[in-house]
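FAQ: What does a multi-protein file look like?

Like this. Sequence, then tokens, then the next protein.
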Amino acid sequence: MDRLINELADRYREAWLTSHRIPAGIRLGYTAFWPEMNYDKREQIRRAEREVLSIRVTPEDVDRMLECSRWLMELVEEDRKLIWLRASGLTWRDIAEHTGIPRTSVHRYWHRALLRIVINQGQRQQI
């Protein structure tokens, strides 16, 4: 069962990364009147470290992300939020501060939420 939970956690991490790689592509026609910035070498290196890899998203990646999103719809909002926060790479301590759940309980609640998804998928496959 722990193997299934770990695989599911990896799927949600992949879904989170995919959701952040999808280009917005929406241009509303607004213009910025700020001057163009000329960064020095040190600032360019820092900006490059912060940028997410711009690997193209494949349709299969999007399908897997949407499948994970559908699974989340079966859970209550608190569980959805907990799974998505952990998929974003936050530590348990940061998640506890963000949600207000005691730090010692965050992992247990996250595990329980993923277990619900595994059980729901298992019941659906039996039908």
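And here is the next protein:
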Amino acid sequence: MLSHMVNVLGILLVAVVICLLEVPYMWKKGLKKELWLFSVLLVLGVGISCAKAFTWTIPTPLDWITAIYRPFSNFLIHIGLIK
């Protein structure tokens, strides 16, 4: 458990350093939309990285595609079009 916390602290430290390097430049240049996008993507990346550090199972896009198409595939199997 301690190693997970060290990994998360490392991820957070890197995220803070990235923010300290990028945010003042964007703020000074008036890049508000880019700053919002940067913030959202950084938070998303930090969240996924922390989840991986805790070895949580993270669904992939293929899992979502499978969940959407499985009922259709089961229907085709049921009516005999595919095996």
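Q: Is there any per-entry metadata?
A: Some entries carry free-text notes. For the entry above: Residues 2-57 form one domain.
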